[in-house]
Amino acid sequence: MKDKKLPISLHLEELRSRLMICFFFVLILALISFVYWHKIINIIWLRDISLIYISPQEAFLTRIKVSVICGILFSMPIILYQIWKFIKPALTPKEQKFTVVLGTVSIFLFFLAVYFNVFIVSPIVINFFLISAQPALTPLISVSNYTSFLLNMTVAFAFISQFPLFMVIASTLGIVSSESFSKYRKPMIIVIFTLAAVITPPDALSQLALALPMWGLYEFGLILIKLLCKLDKRKKAG
Prior knowledge:
With 238 residues, this protein is mostly helical. The chain contains 9 helices and 2 strands; from the N terminus they run ααβααβααααα. The chain has helices at 8-35, 37-44, 58-87, 93-133, 143-160, 163-172, 178-183, 185-199, 204-237; strands at 51-52, 141-142. The radius of gyration is 21 Å and the shape is flat.
């Protein structure tokens, strides 16, 4: 608790050092991803597609973009840990335990969402588009367009995976009550489908592929909030 009385300059210095640690790990993991670029492409590449590049620099720039995104994705546990270490002195022991649990669940949901999109959702969506174009058209997909589609979907899924945690935090802090989340379920479903239309590629299937998991995560968040409310009432009654 004494850390709260430290001068602002020391807090800024600590923030700087933790940002540097995050940047260091992102850079190292991005460089590793750059070296093993071909293995990453082989993992995310659908074998039915022949990827091409249509400009001299396209393949190289795509390699850099994929490497940076992979560096950020793989560094997420370290980034979250550095955030937690920075705010830890300002938290009570109970709040520290709560944030550790939330952080662990957050990391699990994050990587689960990435896996779910890369290996299940995106292949289904891409195959659907390929089948719908046959036999009249032959696909000539550039590596830039392919990876951009996949990365955009992955980032979107990674973001929405944190939906239940945002709901739990908002409820715990008293920003939004559990009753409000239940009361405004229908308007939230409309918001979810609208948001999915904004952050996904402009096609109905991609929007649906994102909106349905978002809806499911919203319902999961409601269940978590209700369980936490019941546990809190039992503790107060005890």
